[in-house]
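Narrative progress, year one. The postdoctoral researcher (J.K.) led the effort to move from monomer predictions toward full complexes, under supervision of the PI. The following entry was the first complex the group processed end to end, covering 274 residues in total.
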Amino acid sequence: MPELPEVETIARGLRPSILNKEITGCEVRYKNIIKIPEKEEFKKRVLNTQVLEVKRRGKYLIISLNNEKDLIFHLGMTGKLLIKSGEAEIDKHTHIILNFAEGFDLRFNNIRKFGRVYLINNDEPEKAGGLADLGPEPLSGDFTLEVFKKGFKNRTTFIKSLLLKQGFVAGLGNIYTDEALFEAGISPDRRANTLKNEEKEKLYKAIIKVLKKGIKYCGTSINDYVDSKGVPGSFQDKLKVYGREGETCPECGHKIAKKKIGGRSSHYCPHCQQ
DNA sequence: GGCTTTGTTTTATA
DNA sequence: GTATAAAACAAAGC
């Protein structure tokens, strides 16, 4: 489940392989994964371009081309971006293949077809799904405690649901929200408007800490996630609550609970998190 | 073959 | 208009 740390790991892995390299071929094997433009237009516009930049914004991976266009991937639940030899066997869930002049491919693989691909002019990000509506980037200078606190204005929803909103903070998914709430000692079913100032500050710090740690361990591989070289991350071994229902809390020894909050499964320690 | 999984979008409601 | 919550949706694996 690629959230911010996973997408960041992929971006870092891709750069040495594709920066300044030329795309010399493009095969679209499943056209519905491309939201904009149509398949033939897509192929025409990526062909014979050069990769200028590889960026990440929230959970979006952005490959800037030298024709003022951005090739944007949202990986959904199971999306992968893999660097493979042009001769490597093609997995049946590979939907887009970009061939590079040096003989390697960048392949977009997506078992459950929940991913999305956009090719847009770089001055119209509003055409790429929710990209233009993302909130502050949590590991950048834009994400200050003041900005974070302002996001609580008029919010009465579950804190868990608020954290998952990409317009509140960009890049958090189910894994890192559960971990951040545990780190902050805040129960996921608290209403956002009931958090005290010091709790908001704890949560603010916890978000940054958990995301940085996720990146340090190259992301969380539970079912599908691997980086651009096919290597899994190791943060799954560091998770304190996510996916650990029934196990004992690493802090207090009580049992970790799991319940649906705002329609999403949430893992937490009912003793440590209030 | 029903259930679960996730992020995002859509729809309905207050 | 705004916020919330629920539902829909993508599809595959078990």
